Task: inverse folding
């Protein structure tokens, strides 16, 4: 059906981008492609951000917390008016699927680049969206999506559906408010925690229940719809590789979809869009099981993070089409005009510690190098010297590779990741590389359980190789020697200052909380380093920025290294690690497990506090919840005892390693 309220044309030549980071930059480029100027908005934390530099104009909209800036509807509309923008593009995340925002933009006399507020509102409520899709004949996952939200009803319906099942927030997405329940005994706790997270993330604690379709793939269909009732699809994307129910790797086309299945899924997506009078770019998401049956999950009423893979195989600019459709232009493409050329794969580069349950990371970007090459595209918002704060999502960018075949695209992406350099906050670069090299992924057989089933080793903290540690020690020694030489006229005589006369110099490097004791001998640029009772010979060569040439076993090799203070970042042998020189680092009184001193593991905001000072607590008990980068993390007691100190309250902003609470142990 067609929205009769839509004007035939709504021309505009200046677009305000109500977002940040790489997606804001992408929209700036799309606006230029159709001859529009762009206006960036920025928070206090983003004054130097790349999207601010690239736009034609920029407006400050408030403080670093998103609630004071990127989520402040009136400030965004005021920024559009002040800058002369006639339209607003929401990007993805933040207010992109907020019906109140879309409605406020339209009521302000501006063009909202996206679907109507009514469509957003309907599809943003999974419960009602699913009911509408069932009525439209779109296949849906069996479950419970009615209005009664009482605990008793949800528990009874969960038992009726059977286990395993999914508890899902009716509003929002991104894996928040979602729980997999394997057994009935887990259901009550899953409902409670999903409700809490959903309420905090989306302002609604409404839930739906669905049968867990295990061994399925997550396949989504991109649609385009104009104001005149014309809807087409642009094929599918496979988004099965996920962690914490959030996508990690996406590709188009799906290895599991052939032409007849694509036609059926595409038609179902078109039917879904037509059922709600959709307009603009949107994505209909399905679960695809091994038999070829597929089930509607949800519709994302916005541009997707993974839209580049569709662009790369269709040759279409989705942002440009969003702008043209929003201006009232007819969609000139017929379904038969859409062709698919080659294969594209995208990985999401996130600032997170994979070995710590994907905990978001903050800090200063010390070094950044984006890859390049045939078929490679990089969308990012990173620059050296940038401070990564806890206020926004952990995704820093996307690396995409296209090839004539899937295997060519995969190989190009492997090389691109190897060329990617990021020193500072820990990233998932190495984890992504291991996914791309895994035989199941190489074979195109990854489903939604792939990460949990196959990547346990990659998510476990392990010591870097002996060579990696030896190279880190040698690089740090060379850096120290060069620094001393620069400060003293007797430079050439001081280059072996820590290992004269072939004496072994002890060195203790700390990595991921584990100390590694090494012995080091140096003569010129030649090193011998003893690691785990093994002597490793290395010869260091020239440095070019972070690039370091070295020779091992007669083979010239290359690494990236950066020394700053007591730390050394090293990227070599396909692994990135940061080490601290533990011999000169000031000891931390709070080091050591089970001492009752609880510190913040990252910058963030205290979302809630569940205890009071003087209360008796048990090891493993949740004391408070820390929110960072749109995710919640429980801070639990590490010992039994009495809560002696509580140094934070709900709403407080805290820094990494800040003391939050102290427990007096029972044995004192």
Result:
């Amino acid at each position: 059906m067609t929205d009769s309220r839509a004007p035939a044309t709504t021309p505009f030549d200046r677009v305000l981008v109500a977002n940040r980071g790489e997606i804001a930059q992408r929209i700036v480029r799309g606006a230029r492609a159709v001859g529009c100027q762009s206006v960036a908005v920025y928070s206090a934390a983003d004054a130097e951000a790349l999207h601010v530099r690239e736009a034609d104009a920029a407006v400050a909209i408030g403080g670093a917390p998103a609630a004071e800036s990127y989520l402040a509807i009136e400030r965004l509309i005021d920024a559009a008016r002040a800058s002369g923008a006639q339209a607003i593009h929401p990007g993805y995340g933040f207010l992109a699927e907020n019906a109140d925002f879309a409605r406020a933009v339209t009521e302000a006399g501006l063009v909202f680049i996206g679907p109507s507020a009514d469509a957003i509102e309907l599809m943003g409520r999974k419960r009602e969206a699913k009911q509408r899709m069932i009525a439209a004949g779109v296949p849906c996952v069996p479950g419970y999506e009615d209005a009664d939200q009482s605990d008793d009803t949800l528990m009874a319906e969960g038992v009726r559906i059977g286990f395993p099942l999914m508890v899902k927030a009716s509003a929002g997405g991104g894996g928040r408010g979602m729980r997999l329940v394997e057994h009935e005994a887990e259901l009550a706790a899953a409902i409670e925690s999903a409700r809490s997270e959903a309420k905090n993330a989306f302002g609604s604690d409404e839930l739906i229940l669905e049968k867990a379709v295990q061994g399925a793939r997550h396949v989504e269909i991109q649609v385009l719809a104009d104001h005149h009732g014309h809807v087409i699809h642009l094929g599918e994307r496979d988004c099965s590789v996920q962690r914490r129910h959030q996508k990690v790797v996406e590709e188009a086309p799906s290895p599991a979809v052939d032409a007849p299945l694509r036609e059926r899924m595409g038609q179902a997506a078109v039917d879904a869009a037509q059922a709600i009078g959709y307009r603009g770019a949107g994505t209909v998401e399905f679960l695809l099981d091994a038999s070829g049956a597929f089930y509607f999950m949800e519709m994302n009423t916005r541009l997707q993070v993974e839209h580049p893979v569709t662009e790369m195989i269709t040759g279409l600019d989705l942002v440009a089409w969003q702008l043209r459709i929003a201006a009232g232009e007819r969609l000139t493409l017929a379904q038969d005009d859409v062709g698919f050329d080659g294969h594209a794969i995208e990985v999401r580069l996130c600032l997170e510690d994979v070995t710590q349950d994907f905990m978001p990371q903050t800090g200063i970007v010390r070094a950044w190098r984006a890859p390049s090459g045939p078929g490679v595209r990089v969308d990012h918002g990173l620059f050296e010297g940038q401070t990564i704060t806890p206020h926004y999502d952990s995704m820093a960018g996307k690396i995409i590779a296209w090839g004539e075949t899937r295997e060519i695209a995969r190989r190009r992406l492997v090389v691109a990741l190897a060329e990617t350099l990021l020193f500072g906050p820990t990233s998932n670069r190495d984890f992504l590389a291991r996914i791309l090299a895994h035989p199941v992924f190489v074979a195109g057989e990854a489903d939604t359980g792939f990460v949990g089933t196959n990547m346990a080793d990659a998510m476990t903290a392990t010591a870097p190789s002996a060579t990696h540690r030896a190279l880190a020690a040698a690089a740090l020694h060379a850096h120290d020697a060069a620094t001393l030489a620069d400060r003293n006229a007797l430079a050439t005589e001081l280059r072996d200052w820590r290992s004269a006369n072939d004496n072994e110099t002890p060195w203790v490097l700390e990595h991921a909380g584990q100390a590694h004791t090494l012995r080091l001998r140096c003569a010129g640029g030649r090193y011998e380093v003893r690691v785990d009772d093994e002597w490793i010979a290395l010869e260091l060569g020239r440095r070019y920025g972070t690039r370091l040439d070295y020779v091992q076993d007669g083979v010239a090799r290359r690494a990236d290294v950066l020394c700053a203070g007591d730390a050394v970042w090293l990227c070599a042998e396909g692994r990135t690690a940061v080490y601290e020189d533990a011999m000169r680092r000031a000891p931390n009184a709070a080091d050591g497990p089970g001492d009752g001193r609880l510190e913040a593991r990252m910058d963030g905001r205290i979302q809630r506090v569940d205890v009071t000072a003087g209360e008796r607590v048990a090891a493993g008990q949740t004391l408070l919840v820390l929110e960072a980068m749109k995710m919640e993390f429980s801070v639990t007691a590490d010992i039994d005892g009495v809560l002696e100190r509580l140094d934070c309250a709900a709403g407080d902003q805290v820094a990494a390693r800040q003391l939050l609470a102290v427990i007096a142990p029972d044995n004192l």
